[in-house]
Amino acid sequence: MPHEIDLQVASDSGSLPDPQDIERWIAAAIRDEREHAEVSIRIVDRDESQTLNNRYRDKNNATNVLSFPSDLPEELKLPLLGDLAVCAPIVEDEAREQGKTLTAHWAHMMIHGTLHLLGYDHIDDEEATHMEALETQIMLGLDFPAPYEESSSTTPRSFSSP
Questions:
Q1: What is the 3-state secondary structure (H, E, C) of 21-67?
Q2: How many CA atoms lie within 13 A of 63 on its CB side?
Q3: 3-141 is classed in which CATH architecture?
Q4: Once rounded to an integer, what is the mean pLDDT over residues 144-156?
Q5: What is the DSSP string of the chain?
Q6: Angstrom distance (rounded) from CA 44 to CA 42
Q7: pLDDT tens digits for 10-39?
Q8: pLDDT of residue 156
């Protein structure tokens, strides 16, 4: 499955994942939904995340991942899936707060954001249950632990998409 990942780093974080790992996580999330896909990923710090979240979601705070699905007419048949903006300091803080390894949390954020680009969402409980099950399946397939606690229905969701 040929996928193209454009990775931009606009963060001072010293704890970023290896680009090859990012490509592997994105490919695992895309699975067989697209034969070819192009994804742009920008790793940002808190200020840029807050600016983007405010501009596109009217929320004046930084967030872990923002997904911007491509909105091209289908007849163009271009492989552009969309863009992700991932806030490195938020991912680091959440991993620590949730008792997860940083690598596992980075993988989860990349998978979560990519699923949004593919049209999955968690706006209502039914969608959330389906998306969380898919995320768990992908994470387990990559030999990571399940990303959600069993009581996730009572756990506030902290993920974002415009």
A1: HHHHHHHHHHCCCCCCEEEEEEEECHHHHHHHHHHHHCCCCCCCEEE
A2: 23
A3: 3-Layer(aba) Sandwich (3.40)
A4: 64
A5: --EEEEEEEE---S-PPPHHHHHHHHHHHHTTS-SSEEEEEEEE-HHHHHHHHHHHHS--S--SEEEEE----GGG---EEEEEEEEHHHHHHHHHHHT--HHHHHHHHHHHHHHHHTT---SSHHHHHHHHHHHHHHHHHTTPPPSS-TTTTTSPP-----
A6: 6
A7: 999 999 999 999 999 999 999 988 888 999
A8: 38
Distance CA 137, CA 90 (A): 24
Q: Where are the domains of the chain?
A: 3-141
Q: What is the Cβ-side half-sphere exposure of residue 24, based on CA atoms within 13 angstroms?
A: 13
Give per-residue burial for 103-133: e unless 16+ CB within 10 Å, then b. Answer: ebbbbbbbbbbbbbbbebebeeeeebeebbe
First-to-final CA distance of the chain: 27
Considering the entire predicted model, what is its pTM?
Answer: 0.88
